[in-house]
Amino acid sequence: MRLFVVVLFVVLGLRLFHIQIIDRSYRRAAENNVLRYEVLNPPRGEIYDRNGEFLAQSVASYDLMLVPRNLPKEGFDTVALARIAGVSVEQLKKSIQQAKNYSNSRASVVVKQMTTEAKLLFDEAGFEGFYTMFRTQRSYPRHIAGNLLGYIGQVNDNIIQKNPYYSRGDYIGFSGIESAYEDILRGEKGERISVVDVRGAIKGPYQEGMYDSPAVAGTPITTTIDAPLQQFAEELMEGKVGSIIAIEPSTGEILVMVSSPTYNPDELMGRDRGNNYMKMLENPRRPLFNRAVMSSYPPGSTFKLVNGLIGLQEGVLKASYRYPCHNGYSVGTGAKGVKVKCHDHISPLNLQQAVANSCNAYFCYVFRDIMDNPKYGGAMKGGYDNWANYVRSFGFGGKLGSDFAAEMGGFVPDKEFYDNYYPRWNSLTVISMAIGQGELGCSPLQMANLAAIIANRGYYYIPHVVKHIEGRDSLEQRFYERHYAMIDEKHYEPVIDGMWGTVHREIGTAGVAYVKGLDICGKTGTAQNPHGKDHSTFLAFAPKDNPQIAISVYVENGGFGSSVAAPIASLLIEQYINGKTEREWLVDYIKQMKIAYPNYEKRQK
After folding, report:
1. What are φ and ψ of residue 133, in 5° steps?
2. Percentage helix, strand, coil, to 5, in the chain?
3. pLDDT tens digit string along 110-168?
4. For a Cys staple, 536 with which of 58, 231, 519, 555, CB 3.0–4.6 Å?
5. Which residues contact 333 (CB under 8 A, 6 or more apart)?
6. Cα 401 from chain centroid?
7. Which parts of 404-461 are beta strand (E)?
């Protein structure tokens, strides 16, 4: 018995020694009863336009936090707290119950994004168990570029499981720049340890703050966007469905990126965010969908420029060659015949005239000569593959590699695609490719990039929306590298002369785009649409020599390229180069133009 008692006391002593001296977990548990560990959320980095104007900035905001176990047993004045926090009593009670269901000992957000005034009133009143956590809220001074900037929202459980940086109540970028540059914009969290009493009131910092760590603000980003030009472009596209992309050819910097309809990014902030998001989600015109980089359209007649350049490079076309057009191009008769219609214009035409008049027949002749070139054995043998390789060198058929994660690649079918559909096929089978129709699909970004390639006489830089990241000397190297199309520089001049004639000569299809002294070069396109009125498209650059801007405008159901897309593009070019536009009558006309959207009208009925 004596030995047993001695052994027992030795064991107890060793255990006490281990608990009090060696094992710190119990000490930490005790300290947790009197210490509050508060996460310090960093403000997100600001987003500027190319001239230093705010596109997105962070303003002070406070979340009302609750540790349920610290609630007073005798209850508290829910009416007063709800009034201070700016929510209904029912909403406050629901949030408190959700916090209890989540954890009785861990802090939860019960009211998000309280104002500074509400925080001061809360501090003055004092509510046991509750405290406020500082965080910032996004603000968008110009209320523009919703699809470009993107939006931020609260993380879900899936995100938390995949990334240990985030915890319940954190915010993350969900689209646009906010998402693509999340790691840069979010900053680094800090931590503050405070001593609190049994009522949860802060008595002071723990160990004079020696264990605190400050939050590090997110890194500011300067974009390539011209904010006034972006706003003007969005105003011109109001009431229309489509997109505008404008690029600085010499750098690949995106000056304008409009997806219409767009939305005010402030609508996806604050307490009404959820309701506004659902309204946008249910809108059949899909304002949350970034058409500029995610849509795939037939390029229409703007694609004739590519076929003309390929014909010149392959030697099957010279600028002086003339082809007839009798209201179109036709081969054969009856059910087996092929007919591609065209509008009235002079005939025959050379290359420059064919571009200026957007002649369908001319480019059908050119396309078939490329496909049926004897050295490749015809379209089925190798002519098509050769043509497709040229097309892909212009950036079609794959992603350009921009800094938009949601960028789509478009579609250029390979030879096997047609082999699967037709036992035998030839250049007539795919003749619609001659005028940018058929199975071809490209994004507005790719069409604007085509304008930049022609403006540069053969090369492009990967389009991007970020110009500078604070603290870094440069962007990724890939944004400074030239990418060349498979066309010699000398072949661009006759095509560019035709584009100049499109806007400047009486026979051109886009005289409405003429602006004295700007030497705008353009190409209209009317893309066939099986679901309604044809789409209106126009790509251009200016000036002809040393171009400053390349642009593509695509308006769904807009009709002829000259009717909507061309005037919009010319107004933006004029505004960018001259700093103003003299054609106020045209601005008013375009702004007042509202284009019916069949899918929307049908669903509304």
Report:
1. -120, 125
2. 40, 20, 40
3. 898 888 889 999 988 888 888 888 878 888 999 999 999 998 888 888 998 899 888 87
4. 555
5. none
6. 13
7. 459-461
